[in-house]
Design a protein that fits this description.
By secondary structure, the chain is mostly beta strands. The relative contact order is 0.31. Strands 2, 4, 5, 6, 9, 10 and 11 form a seven-stranded mixed sheet that branches. The termini are far apart.
């Protein structure tokens, strides 16, 4: 069993930066891929970024590539999402997740645990 708690969301102006954190409990956290999804109002939840258990391999949706950076610190059981040059269309609830695999390309379809989310609002 893994529990995930996100933090770091808030209100920021367009062009600003935020860093999200996801603290995990559970001894298997460092064994599998972790990552982030988001859900904007009136839209379906969508994949944002994933990172392998070792932290070496990452995978991003095209909409955030070059602006967002995912990382992890297994000693702290934490996954991070550094979000730079934010746009109003990045406004969403951001969810942390872990997968049942350690292959980032399969992460979006292999999620087994979810956090409750943290709200990011980007004003124009």
């Amino acid at each position: 069993q893994v529990q995930l708690v996100e933090s770091g969301g808030g209100l920021v102006q367009a062009g600003g930066d935020l860093r999200l954190s996801c603290a995990a409990s559970g001894r298997t956290f460092s064994t599998y891929a972790g990552g982030w999804f988001r859900q904007a109002p009136g839209r379906e939840r969508e994949f944002v970024a994933a990172i392998s258990a070792s932290g070496i391999t990452t995978y991003y949706d095209d909409s955030v590539k070059g602006r967002f950076t995912i990382s992890r610190d297994n000693a702290k059981n934490t996954v991070y999402l550094q979000m730079n040059t934010l746009k109003p269309e990045d406004t969403a609830i951001y969810y942390c997740a872990t997968a049942s695999v350690d292959y980032v390309l399969e992460f979006p379809t292999s999620v087994n645990y979810w956090g409750k989310g943290t709200l990011v609002t980007v004003s124009a």
